[in-house]
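ok so i was messing around last nite and threw this chain in just to see what happens. nothing serious, just curious
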Amino acid sequence: MTARISVPEPQTAPAGSQAALAQIQSAFGGVPQMFRAVSNSPAALQSMWAAFGALGGGVIPAKLGEQIAVAVADRNRCEYCLAAHTALGRKAGASAEQMAAAQSGQSDDPKTAAALAFALKLVEARGQVSDADVAGLREVGFNEGEIVEIVAHVALNLFTNYINVAFAVPVDFPAVALTAR
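result:
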C-alpha cells in the first residue's frame, strides 16, 4: 500500500523539521517512516517528538508505556504502532508473551492489568471514565502522577495511531498480527 501523503527522505523534509529529524536519527539509528510522514508539518513533528521525550522521562516505566501502546494500537487497528511498540517493548524488557498479552489488554501483573484496562476504557469510552475507574488504579498502587501519565500515553498513542492509519504509513518494523475482532 502506498502512503496517502508524502514520506520524505529526511534531507528533503521541511527545514523546520530538520532538528527533530536529526534527534530521531540519533535515537533510532535511522528515521522511521512515521516520523518522516509527520515531518511534513514541523509543528506536528516537534509536538510528537517532544511528547515521546517527555513521557520517556516520566514515572511510568518504559515497559508499561510500551504495553499500553500495543493495547491502544491493537484497539485502533494500527499495524504500524503495533509493530513498532512490540519491538520497543521487547527492548524495554518485556517478553514476547507479555507483549502479546498486552496487545489484548491482559497481564499477569495486577497493576499492569489495571493500567491496560483503564487505557482501553479511555479509548473505547472516548475519555468518559468513572470515579470507580480512577479509584481502581489507586487501589493497585498508582499515584496521581502515574494516572495522569497513563492518560498522556494513551493520548500520544492516539496521535500516532491516527497518523499511521489515516495516511497508510508503510510499516518499517517487523510485522505483528492484529488480534481478530
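not much to say yet. The chain has two domains: 15-57, 62-167.
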